[in-house]
Structures are given as C-alpha cells and as structure tokens.
Amino acid sequence: MTDPQAIKRRPTRAVRVGNVVVGGAAPVVVQSMTNTDTADYLSTALQVVELARAGSELVRITVNTEAAAAAVPRIREHLERMGVTVPLIGDFHFNGHRLLADFPDCAQALAKYRINPGNVGHGKKRDEQFAQMIELACRYEKPVRIGVNWGSLDQDLLARMMDENAKAPAPLGTEALMRQAMVASALESAARAEALGLPGDRIILSCKVSGVQDLIALYRDLSGRCDYPLHLGLTEAGMGSKGIVASTAALAVLLQSGIGDTIRVSLTPEPGASRSQEVVVAQEILQTMGLRAFTPMVAACPGCGRTTSTLFQELAASIQDYVRGKMPDWRGEYEGVENLTLAVMGCVVNGPGESKHANIGISLPGTGEAPSAPVFEDGQKTVTLRGDHIAAEFQAIVDRYVASHYRRKLAQ
C-alpha cells in the first residue's frame, strides 16, 4: 500500500472556491461537469445533486447562452432547497464577458469562473474581453481557472512563438512547441490577470490535452514555473476502459510527483449511463494511491480454476454497490467510515489470510470446498455463514460493524 507521506505535494497557493479550498495544504479535490442543457435548470440541478452525492466536490456547468446564464441563479436556489452546497463553476467561452456583465445574478451565484484564453476573442478584442472577465471576477470576488486547451490555443501567441522558434539555432519540434505555447499562454494570462487586479490566490491554472505523455510533459513544465494550484485532467479521455486507463496513467504519474491540486476524469458516458462514473474513477485514483479515502475499499478475488462458482463475484459486486450506496448517509453520520476495508475472497488459498487483513472479510468456498464461508473481523473469525442468504447476512455484519466501530458525528 502506498504511504501517503511518501508523496510530497508541491507547495502552491490556497484558493477558496465557495466552501472548498484548492491547493495549499488542502487534499486533492475531485470535480466533475454536467452534460445537461444548463437552460433546463431543473435537469441541471438534479444532475448536480447526483454528482455531488457521488462525491464531486466542485461541479462545472456550461454557461454559453443568455438562457443558460439566466438559469444559473435558479439552479443555485434549487440546490440550496435540497441542502446541496457544492460550489458551481461557470464554464465560459467566446461570450463570457457579455454574459457575466449582463446577468449579475449569474455572476454572483457562481463560485468560480473558468476562462479559456484561446476563446475570449482575437487581437484587440481578446485583450479587452479577457480584461472584462477579470474585472468582473474582481468585482464579485470570485476565483478564476485559466484553462488552456490544446484544441483552442491562442493562435496569435502560437504564431509569435512559431516565428521565434524558426529563428532559433535548434528549433523545437511541432509537439514540443505546442506544449511550450500552452504553458506560455497559461502563465502570460495569469500574469495579466494579476496586473488587472485579480489576487494571485484566486487563480488556478490548467493546460489540458488528450495525450497521456503530452499531459505529463506539460504539467511537469508548468509546475516548475509557478506556484498556482493546478487542475489536472485529459481534455477527452474517451469511453469505458480506454478513458479510465488513459486518465489513470496520466494522473497517477503526476500525482505521484506531487503535481496536481484538483482533478477531473473526463469520461464519455456510455449511452444512458450515469454521469457520476467519472467521479467514482477520480475518487478511486486518489484512494488507491493512498492520497485520500472516500468510501470503503473492497478487495476481491480475481478468480481462477479453483473458483468456478460465480458466488464470490456476485457478492463482491453487491457489497461494493451496497457500501457506495450507503456512503452518503454513513459519511454524514460516522467519522472515518471511509477508511473501512473489506475483502471478498473466493477460496481457501488466500481467502482466510486476505480476509484477516481487512476490517471485515469473508472467504467463500471454492470448487470442492465445504459449503461454508467464515467471516473475519479485525483478524478474528466471528461467524461462519451458510445457505442462500450469505449476501444479506454479510451486509448486516457490515452495518453492525460500522455502527459499533465508528464514532457518531455530533448533530449540527
């Protein structure tokens, strides 16, 4: 298991985003983004609730039209009526300067603005419109994420750097130059924001691409040149296992190096699938690295020729779903329950040993073994389960363990 003390985070400024702190000594923050039409305030509010309940600590919403900007205060009001305090981040491109100016209630309801310096205009308009957004952030005392994207890089900056590169004794290759231009865009935009009056402790930076090696190289460069908190994530991770693997490969390398203060896993959802999967993956990256704990971890046997029954697979899936479903309530009621460890093992080879290492473990019978399942609590065998109701009985044991081993939080 990774020792979290072995991962030394790079020192950064602390930026407050609503009731959440990003950077400084704060733990790495998980965030996500809605994919509803923001103008549909009810659907958007309900998806924000879903994401927040899954564990997203910041939620970004698209603000691209007048209807979307007008809906933001209604979304915030609806969330507050449901007792959801998760900060909302407004994602602005092209017309953000106008929407923030024309809809002051929107500007006030948002906890942070995301500005893409490549999409705020061109030439003189770019500088003017960027300045307008920063001035509004200053007026409403909001932090800003300056988010540079590979696919929308400031073309004037890129042209300037290409000219300079062509004259260099040893010109950079195209990809290296693009990465350098992205870092320059982020740092120059941050410097301009500070010159316009935005305090440095209200700035977060990101430089997002879709390639794993490009992302790692970019953030290594960027992190060595500033002390702003950094938001990590691939621009488009992809679907299913590809998106999960790509995000994990990139983020794990950077986090292990102490780089990154907030993360998002930008998965393309399967048709009809919950948007909250990206939150679960982000949490699991941080938890498996030992950086944070969000929900009880379930160690499960992978299966082999000794485990031809699917019993252990079904129990592992059911208990994992069960504890994740219980966590919103447990988190509010018990202190430290997210550190609970569980083991669901499939045969006698490693079953008892692995079960003893978990807070609660069960060793199910493998092929040819006696049809019994010993349960261990903190290394000691407490009961043997048999019959058709093992799953329900094991869940009841987990419930009793949580209630008896974790201190109840004081009522607010």
From TrEMBL:
Any one GO biological process: isopentenyl diphosphate biosynthetic process, methylerythritol 4-phosphate pathway
Official protein name in the record: 4-hydroxy-3-methylbut-2-en-1-yl diphosphate synthase (flavodoxin)
Cofactor: [4Fe-4S] cluster
Function as written in the Swiss-Prot or TrEMBL entry: Converts 2C-methyl-D-erythritol 2,4-cyclodiphosphate (ME-2,4cPP) into 1-hydroxy-2-methyl-2-(E)-butenyl 4-diphosphate.
EC number: 1.17.7.3
Domain IspG TIM-barrel: 12-282
Family that this chain belongs to: Belongs to the IspG family.
Alphabetically ordered keywords of this record: 4Fe-4S, Iron, Iron-sulfur, Isoprene biosynthesis, Metal-binding, Oxidoreductase
Annotated pathway: Isoprenoid biosynthesis; isopentenyl diphosphate biosynthesis via DXP pathway; isopentenyl diphosphate from 1-deoxy-D-xylulose 5-phosphate: step 5/6
Annotated [4Fe-4S] cluster binding sites: C301, C304, C347, E354
Keyword Iron-sulfur: yes
Gene name for this UniProt entry: ispG
Superkingdom per UniProt: Bacteria
IspG C-terminal domain: residues covered: 298-399
UniProt KW Oxidoreductase keyword: yes
Catalysed reactions, as listed in the record: (2E)-4-hydroxy-3-methylbut-2-enyl diphosphate + oxidized [flavodoxin] + H2O + 2 H(+) = 2-C-methyl-D-erythritol 2,4-cyclic diphosphate + reduced [flavodoxin]
InterPro entries, A to Z: IspG_bac (IPR016425), IspG_bac-typ (IPR004588), IspG_C (IPR058579), IspG_TIM (IPR058578)
Family annotation (HAMAP family): IspG
GO molecular function per UniProt: 4 iron, 4 sulfur cluster binding; 4-hydroxy-3-methylbut-2-en-1-yl diphosphate synthase activity (ferredoxin); 4-hydroxy-3-methylbut-2-enyl-diphosphate synthase activity (flavodoxin); metal ion binding
Record text on cofactor binding: Binds 1 [4Fe-4S] cluster.
